[in-house]
Amino acid sequence: MRISLLLAAAAFLTTTACQRTVAVTTPTDAPQTGLAGSVSTPAPTSANTIEPAPNNAPAFDTQKRPKWLEDRIQAHLKEKKANPPVHIYSYQYNGATVYFETSPCCDQYTNLYAADGQVLCHPDGGLTGRGDGKCADFSKNRTEEKLVWQDPR
Question: Biased composition, Polar residues: where in the chain (predicted)?
Fold first, then answer.
């Protein structure tokens, strides 16, 4: 009895589902001409009203860079372009301004500098990706991120 009900339900569903057709049209579709080679792509209905304008403002903070940081940036520009490009960010960390320099690739350490240019630690990178372990809380406790510089090449 149960099998015959299931078969009847399946037969009903397949016959009614197969008889339904769905036609999808949009108001911008051109009328179909019936020709085999006709293009059914609609023509644009309006012109673009937004013209993108380039943003000429610097993407990074150029204010109050310490001399040692400017020297570090110049050293990067003298080297071959890294992939990915080097970025330098400033943060507040443990109540002080610090500078975080990304590594150019792979298993290299990143650098965290104090405001006077001394290396504090290597927050990440290396073979484990966890840095040298001297500032393991850096990613959790850093605040006020500002992009100071990125290699423009």
Answer: 38-49
